[in-house]
Amino acid sequence: MAELSTLARPYAKAAFEYALAAGDLAGWSEQLATAAAVAQQEVISKVLATPAMTTAQQAQTFIDVCGDALSDKAQNFVRVLAENKRLKLLPQIAAIYEAHKAAQEKSVDVELSTAFELDAGTQQKLADALSGKLQREVKVTAVVNKELLGGVLVRAGDLVIDGSVRGRLAKLAEAMNS
């Protein structure tokens, strides 16, 4: 069976291209996030897995649960997903859509893991430095990780910069053992 992300990719691309053409990237981002959250609910998964329901009934049930959060175009998108038995892919579709959106907007979400709370000025300095290095707008999320002895661990997508004391000690131990 193909990976879920492989199956979700064309739907995410179609949603992204439509949203880009319509000039509504943020609106579609919110709608897909809502639909993905609904799709992950165990109760909804059980209801949609009922073999007695037609795809049209599944789509309508899903749309009813989402309420007014979905526009007419997003409801049509849900109907297409239901017809192709792909409603369970909504979390992956939303994630891939967000990656396309971030690339379009030249932005990246960065997680800073530190041993201690960082003040706003330090966070801003790190964000500015990363913005220059990555040549993108940086959205910083700071997380306190008590396992770090000091320093910072930066995660931006698949890029990881380990500036922590623990990471430096591990590199030193590795160099001494080789």
TrEMBL record:
Source domain of life: Bacteria
Which Pfam families does the entry link to? Answer: OSCP
Q: Which InterPro entries match?
A: ATP_synth_OSCP/delta_N_sf, ATPase_OSCP/d_CS, ATPase_OSCP/dsu
Segments crossing the lipid bilayer: none
Write out the entry's keywords from A to Z. Answer: ATP synthesis, Cell membrane, CF(1), Hydrogen ion transport, Ion transport, Membrane, Transport
UniProt-annotated location(s):
Cell membrane; Membrane
> What HAMAP family has UniProt attached to this entry?
ATP_synth_delta_bact (MF_01416)
Supply the name of the protein. ATP synthase subunit delta
Name of the gene this protein is made from = atpH
